[in-house]
Please model this.
Amino acid sequence: MKPHANEYPAYYAKYIDALGDVDLTSVLTSQLHTLTALSSLTEEQALYRYAEGKWSIKEVLGHLIDCERVFAFRAMSIARGEQQPLPGFDENAYVAHASFDAQPVSHLIEELISVRHATITLLRSLTPDEHLRSGVANGNPITVRALFWIIAGHVKHHAEILTTRYL
Model:
């Protein structure tokens, strides 16, 4: 079930709202096909940036990997009853300090698909009560359920950017 607006910071609404009323597990699974389609990119194509200062396709993939891991960790931590506030992260610094452009695009896609499988497995392992648990991440209250919706909406957001600005 879609999270309510009081379950997450307002700046995540664009990701959650973009999904509409859907079966989340189906969306997370279907996104695997979208990601797999990027396997046809050459190394040169995967280094493309649509403007100066923008991430390459490889860096976008790396960003998706990092964010999915962070959000899934937050979901697991809160589901397990973590009471300590979870830290934020600077996605731009993460990309700047990573070597995504030096990695084969096939490895990045393989890693992203592996991370997604782990996310789906975690989602399926939680009870309805665990999905509703709330914690604090990056200084804001958030529920486990909202985190999974953010993961799916975030990938949808970047898939649309890849389609319209990169491919």
In short: The radius of gyration is 16 Å. The helical segments are 13-17, 24-37, 43-46, 57-79, 91-96, 105-125, 128-131, 144-166. The CA atoms of residues 5 and 11 lie 10 Å apart.
